[in-house]
Amino acid sequence: MRLSTKLSGLWLAACAIAATSDKAVTNEDGIRSIPLRTHTLNSPYLDSDMQSRWFDFGGNTIIRADQYIRLTSDRPSQEGWLFSRVPLTATNWEIEVEFKIHGSGNLHGDGFAMWLTKQRATAGPVFGSADQFEGLGIFFDTYKNNRPGTVFPYVMAMVGDGVKSYDKSNDGKSDEFMGCSARGIRGASVPTKAKLTYFQDKSLKLELQYKAEDQWELCFSTEEPPTIPSVAYLGFSAETGELSDNHDIISVNTKNLYDTKNRPDPSTQKPGSGSGRQRGKGRPDKKKSGSWTWFFFKILMFVVVAGGGYVGFTAWRTQQRRANRF
């Protein structure tokens, strides 16, 4: 089902400013999260006009309001997508997606993708979306083309520069930023979820739930995350070829993240990791603490040396006086 809108970008931007919820939660690590409605999607998905205020849908996507958004059905040669209408401009965020990959055949394919890219709402050959994208793509690949030694389904991240093409014939091996095997993610007996967490210039982490509820498996994590475009749209897409599957999006929940502890930026504590930033005041500064320790150590050494010199000088004068008596 292709849904369109005549709402202007200005109106959407104005609504986006007012669309953050005040239901903030701070966890034990001091990370405060605020739900972001502009990039959140839950049943029934559509409003009273049978449209979505914040997302566009296209291709072979169908919507069952009480259950799922189906990007592709279990039929050959399908492709479908959904993309946010406004960009995700938050500096730090968490996106949790519940999805379901399932079908009736013993052979199945091809998979679906999660996008944070400058481009939006364009069908193409990369899991149903456009190639030569600029931004981040996360691919949930269920069909192995040519990648010896890799267990499928395989989940991988690719950073696109707007020029580089996805190497589909080799399952993106040469383009991989990070990834992991996720056997059991298709047709799992528990709700399957992906949680992508990003702190600008600090970290990127992908966790998966497919073995047991509330049990998150780390897929990948890095303290040197790629640069995501400042104007990036959140999207999902899927495709089938000769082989097929149902690729369903059940829910999308996005949150702005804030670090209330004002931790020191790791890039200021190790050479070559990026530009320095002002350290936070809410936590002791290790480097500054070390400088004070060295300062007091030098004072102590001065006292010891001066004291030793004074004792030596006193002993020498005493010896000279005794010698003069004779």
TrEMBL record:
<dbReference type="GO" id="GO:0000139">
    <property type="term" value="C:Golgi membrane"/>
</dbReference>
<dbReference type="GO" id="GO:0005537">
    <property type="term" value="F:D-mannose binding"/>
</dbReference>
<keyword id="KW-1133">Transmembrane helix</keyword>
<dbReference type="InterPro" id="IPR051136">
    <property type="entry name" value="Intracellular_Lectin-GPT"/>
</dbReference>
<dbReference type="InterPro" id="IPR005052">
    <property type="entry name" value="Lectin_leg"/>
</dbReference>
<dbReference type="GO" id="GO:0005789">
    <property type="term" value="C:endoplasmic reticulum membrane"/>
</dbReference>
<keyword id="KW-0472">Membrane</keyword>
<dbReference type="GO" id="GO:0030134">
    <property type="term" value="C:COPII-coated ER to Golgi transport vesicle"/>
</dbReference>
<keyword id="KW-0732">Signal</keyword>
<dbReference type="GO" id="GO:0005793">
    <property type="term" value="C:endoplasmic reticulum-Golgi intermediate compartment"/>
</dbReference>
<feature type="domain" description="L-type lectin-like">
    <location>
        <begin position="33"/>
        <end position="257"/>
    </location>
</feature>
<keyword id="KW-0812">Transmembrane</keyword>
<protein>
    <submittedName>
        <fullName>L-type lectin domain-containing</fullName>
    </submittedName>
</protein>
<feature type="signal peptide">
    <location>
        <begin position="1"/>
        <end position="18"/>
    </location>
</feature>
<feature type="region of interest" description="Disordered">
    <location>
        <begin position="255"/>
        <end position="288"/>
    </location>
</feature>
<dbReference type="GO" id="GO:0006888">
    <property type="term" value="P:endoplasmic reticulum to Golgi vesicle-mediated transport"/>
</dbReference>
<dbReference type="Pfam" id="PF03388">
    <property type="entry name" value="Lectin_leg-like"/>
</dbReference>
<dbReference type="InterPro" id="IPR013320">
    <property type="entry name" value="ConA-like_dom_sf"/>
</dbReference>
<feature type="transmembrane region" description="Helical">
    <location>
        <begin position="292"/>
        <end position="316"/>
    </location>
</feature>
